[in-house]
Amino acid sequence: MDVLAVLNLGEFPHIFSKMGMFPVFDLAYYIVSILYLKYEPGSVEVSRKSPVASWLCAMLYCFGSYILADIMLGSSPIDYFQHNSHILLASAVWYLIFYCPLNLFYKCVAFLPVKLVLVALKEVVRTRKIAAGVHHAHHAYHHGFLIMVIVGYVKGSGVALISNFEQLLRGVWRPDTNEILNMSFPTKASLYGAILFTLQEAQYLPVSKSTLILVFTLFMATSKVVMTARHSHGSPFALIESWVCHLLFGSPLGGSEEDHHHAAAAPSSPLKTKEELSEGARKRKAKKAE
Amino acid sequence: MDVLAVLNLGEFPHIFSKMGMFPVFDLAYYIVSILYLKYEPGSVEVSRKSPVASWLCAMLYCFGSYILADIMLGSSPIDYFQHNSHILLASAVWYLIFYCPLNLFYKCVAFLPVKLVLVALKEVVRTRKIAAGVHHAHHAYHHGFLIMVIVGYVKGSGVALISNFEQLLRGVWRPDTNEILNMSFPTKASLYGAILFTLQEAQYLPVSKSTLILVFTLFMATSKVVMTARHSHGSPFALIESWVCHLLFGSPLGGSEEDHHHAAAAPSSPLKTKEELSEGARKRKAKKAE
Amino acid sequence: MDVLAVLNLGEFPHIFSKMGMFPVFDLAYYIVSILYLKYEPGSVEVSRKSPVASWLCAMLYCFGSYILADIMLGSSPIDYFQHNSHILLASAVWYLIFYCPLNLFYKCVAFLPVKLVLVALKEVVRTRKIAAGVHHAHHAYHHGFLIMVIVGYVKGSGVALISNFEQLLRGVWRPDTNEILNMSFPTKASLYGAILFTLQEAQYLPVSKSTLILVFTLFMATSKVVMTARHSHGSPFALIESWVCHLLFGSPLGGSEEDHHHAAAAPSSPLKTKEELSEGARKRKAKKAE
């Protein structure tokens, strides 16, 4: 009978939303995050020259969302570092990705089918983080809707929002762009997700939280898997956004699309963000750096 | 009889210092602050390209003082964002100034007579913020005179103190100058005001707080209105400061004056701060950007 | 009999670890710290042009460790500024070093024998700060070993870790390097010290805290005095580190040594940190700036 109850689809969202994230999902999150760090130009050199800086960057990639959310709510920014097992797991992943003999671990996890699974698992964690961030902020500020959106947003976006300072740690400084000026898909989706979860928490949305978590997870995982498989960075929101921005803010129609093309046409443009570099190019750079 | 009591000048400082700031005075504060944001070169382009970044900058301009003071006292930096009505009002002002059809709202509030009134009202809010900041810090640190000065100072200066990082949000980076190296008049006045209010709070100044608020407000409003009307950035403190700095710190006499002239002589100097650009030039730039 | 008890070596570590730091040791700490600030290129000009910026930098040099540790533990970053006597003492030192007639005070404290004594006293304070930081973090996070290391580390390193932002305050921006990428000897020693004190606090190290304080102080004072006397920046850890990094992280053997030589060979390299400039060169620069 218990098996039947688990199979009952009506219960599924609830069970899914209560499922523990540690260690499987968190492991996938750490692997994909540190993989993206290794794609960053120059990060392999930093890992050889200054392991401490490289480790710190890896920690920012893995726990940036907790650090930012703690700052936003006025807690200790390193509060999450009391979870020794999480830190150890992330450090082990960092070590394996950067220093494993023959680059074996990196080759395994960067192998596309494996990576697609990991990317999907990462989005499960991201959605849960957004929901937890909004809930946490709601607890502290009962009517602070904007605070709830901000905390959910930083929990979903993590290191991307402080990428300028993360790069500074590695000796790179690109002030002409940042994640707010040129939002990537995960950052945008985190913002919309944070708004949805805030509406749900304020009971303006007629769905249960577990259903919202399930639906948003499915959307995020599907989008990211498709985008990763296609090496694409087009956003599913592009069309709607383009029209809304045109109506509300007088932005030129299809603006972001055009911007991308311009960036592609100007190959030495310093404005290129990591999100505008195709994954293929990034991988090639990472390989060359080995 | 009540009317008479209100007219009674002895009571006036007390009534003035208890007067509510929301919504009239706060509205003026938001309008003038976001007007200054629109004067910044490039801010109109940012508002077209990334409304989120533009809105964030506007919030920093309006609530930077609260954010900084909260950081200084170890609270949540976004604590003030729980006041939904203030945020909504500031967001509406931001929308009207940047996206109003025909630029109508901007033209109205940038019309000199209107602007002079708004500037005067803004200084009322600034003085109250300094007094509140000092009082708040005094509550937390009874003998922390320096903490009281610092918190009052950041409450008065607001976004100016973090202008480097506010600019970074818009993709601009000018590391060679900052508000501490080249203090503008409002920043300097906030510092002196914070010192005065701290002395008053520590009972070294033989005046009541309400009188001090009234006098300081009158001084600030008069100075800023005159400076705005004359498009001038000369500070009323210049002469005294020049002598005191010469005696205490061996600075060359009339140094700051000369620096201004040098900056004016070198038109392409990257050291030019926004405060050194005349308001006229800034307006022209803002207009061109439309 | 009391004198005998004091002379008893078994009690000495305990007495040494309870000895008050204010005012003698703290004074030495402030003098050496602000001396290093004066060695920084451009700092004398800043002290003439903007005494407020210069004073703020001096405070960061003296109290950066407290500010950083307070931020890490989620307290008010200016919490330490409630100790008016410490602030006054540090401000007096700042004034004397930068503005004393005939540069008399600077010449006295920069005189090598005097400086060696002051440097030794400074290391006494540093060790006590690391121990106090670890202890404080242990109190807040009983099993947060990493948090203990981090807080001890920032307490020992102080302003060095935020040198990029301290420089920004003076209008200098060198993003291509930072203290994490190119650790100087005191920063490295603080990290190792923080690890040792954390192990001791977690009772993995079979020594008493007072003994550890005494031994670590002796090691730090000796090392720094020898290095200052020889104008050297070679680290006593270099050989071990080089081998450990080679084995663990695949860094080229003797890497840091080589890097130093390369930096020395490329005289206009922008990567040169303040720690790579010999003290002699820095002094000469400071003198020229007078």
TrEMBL record, chains A, B, C:
> Which GO MF terms are attached to this record?
identical protein binding; potassium channel activity
Q: Which Pfam families match?
A: TRIC
Q: What parts of the sequence cross the membrane?
A: 20-39, 51-73, 93-121
| Ranges of Basic and acidic residues composition bias in the record | 272-281
Question: Topology with regard to the membrane?
Answer: Multi-pass membrane protein
Q: State the protein's purpose.
A: Intracellular monovalent cation channel required for maintenance of rapid intracellular calcium release. Acts as a potassium counter-ion channel that functions in synchronization with calcium release from intracellular stores. Opened by a change of voltage within the sarcoplasmic reticulum lumen.
Q: What family does the entry list?
A: Belongs to the TMEM38 family.
Oligomeric and partner information: Homotrimer; conformation seems to be controled by binding to diacylglycerol (DAG).
The protein depicted here goes by the name Trimeric intracellular cation channel type A
Tell me the organism's taxonomic lineage. Eukaryota, Metazoa, Chordata, Craniata, Vertebrata
